[in-house]
Amino acid sequence: MMMLQHGSTQLLCLTASSGVPLFTRGASKQLPFSVIGSLNGVHMFGAGQGVELSCCETEGGGKVVWRVFQDSVMLIAVSGGGRGGAGVGKAEELRLRRLLENAWSCMVLVLGQDELTDVRNVERLKRDLRSCFTLVDQLLEDRQEGILGNLTHCVDSLLPPDPTILQGSPTVAHRLLRFQLLPGADVCVLCGPTPSLHKAESRLVGAFWTPLAETLRGCLAIGEQCLPGSVSLRPDLLAVLLINRETRRSVSLVRPSTAHPLGDSPSKARCWELLRLFYVFSTTHYFTQEETSSASPEERPQRGHNEDFVLGFSHQPLQCYLVTDECKSFGLQTPQHQLFLLVPPSVPSFALRTLATQTLSDIVAAT
């Protein structure tokens, strides 16, 4: 029996100990309570037998992914299928796992981990979780162009020509304050009960950020390019995703359609989609997935490569490529970086490695 419509996704949140539903978000037609109870029951039955049920495929081609966080909250992601064959199924599993991790992170951000791990009043928790719905719905829609951090779990960033780093690591945060520095540039500040909003704006924000006004204007000038002007990319590049594996930061960009005179080039929106798909393809078949702090030590060994070809070798793949009717894609992995490129089909396949190596070298040298 098909649980959801093709292409739709539903997120279920329950208490891990008793299976009490806390909220349901996603598909317009919610799953019946009996189905939700069955999904929770089969997971609890497996746990009672010493078996961890993490993912399964439905008869209609959909997928169900389970995850228990801090032995307190269970999140279940259910997709309606209709997304393709086995390789696409692996990509869909990764997408759903990322969805569960990101949803839990949203809940921790809004409510705090203590409120979620020490549940004293379920009805109150249900009410409090409503404040997370906007963020969770954004994750389910997954339509933000240029934002890949929810998939890569690296910080989306840009590389200004004169970077100035001002950062801190507060241990306690009570308020999130947001101030506009320039049109298009805002700063968010985590602080305790003091100072007041007026004092923070008049005394702190101006003192710290006014000297950096020109640097901020330089960042705004970069815009969607995300790279300093000293980096000259080849004109036949459609899209680029560069991940720094040490700092867990990423830079991604799609070239404007005017840079590609050929009429058969994918649209900007389609290039973002293809870039995401190639990243998922590469990390589920060949490259290393960047783990998050929410992944348990027991779960990390299970997140290796799913490709039989890779499992037959002791070494780590360093390059991969994919040729489709829309574009050619090339991935390059080093101890410090992962680079993913999209180019038009007209670019010769034998030139992809040189193109990727040169692009990585140019960006690293300039930043």
Automatic annotation (TrEMBL):
Residues 237-363 form the FUZ/MON1/HPS1 third Longin domain. GO terms for biological process: non-motile cilium assembly; vesicle-mediated transport. It comes from the Eukaryota. InterPro entries: FUZ/MON1/HPS1_longin_1, FUZ/MON1/HPS1_longin_3, Fuzzy. It holds the Pfam family Fuz_longin_1. Residues 10-139 form the FUZ/MON1/HPS1 first Longin domain. Coiled coil: none annotated. This is Fuzzy planar cell polarity protein. It comes from Gasterosteus aculeatus (Three-spined stickleback).
